[in-house]
Write a structure and sequence with these properties.
11-stranded mixed beta sheet, two-stranded antiparallel sheet, alpha/beta, 18% strand
Length: 267
Amino acid sequence: MPAGSDGVGVRDDAGHRQRLVVSIHDVAPTFMEDVRYLLAALDAIEVRPRVLKVIPYFEQRDDIRADTAFGRLLAAEAAAGSEIVVHGYTHRAAGPPRGPWARRLRAHFFAGAAAEFLSLDDAAMRARLAAGRAALQDLGLEARGFCAPAWLAPPRLPPLLKECGFHHYVQMLSLLDLMTGRRHWTPWLGYMGAGEVQERLVGLGGGAWLAVDSALPVIKVFFHPQGARTSPACARALRVLARLVRERQPATFESLLTGPTHAGIAP
């Protein structure tokens, strides 16, 4: 029985249990062992369902279709109720970031080489979106959601996502329903798999959201596989998650759009 399924926990004003979306980023064959570690850690605290953000062709050398063990892992997770989300295509920029200087500055300091979708024109974005969905379909998996690497993409991305058959768009602080235009807040905390300074900043941001935990209909907890097995920051995030899952109902992004929630705001 999932933790908290006895009905104990935080509820919203309508009596619905508040939600907890747990996601693993950068799911690719390159990071297979660290992804397995995180999945086992989530199993140990009974976090199901969860979200796997899959990179279909990491660094243009790591095709998910070429690794049968990886394909079996994804299929098993999907069969158990996990949501599969497309997480870029190569997760690497094709050139310098485009757009206003503030967005380019954020890409430089926050994303480095990962700002893939800030480096592309519309045609290239459309091609990579279609290729990403096709790669998963070749494995018998359907992805309705998309999350840009480092949550960075130009504002013109949503219509391209809809054109390519996606139903929802995962952003840093929100989830956009591409079918209705409705947006759902998703305050966050987690582990970046980055340097100490970045982990401290993420910890401060997550701590601020935890201070108002009971007022939040949805909390998102994310994990990156890089360094997860040995990172104190990852261990801390897992300890916080073990408490949250006793109080909140685990959910997928897709279920936020179909189940009872009061996280929505007008477009």
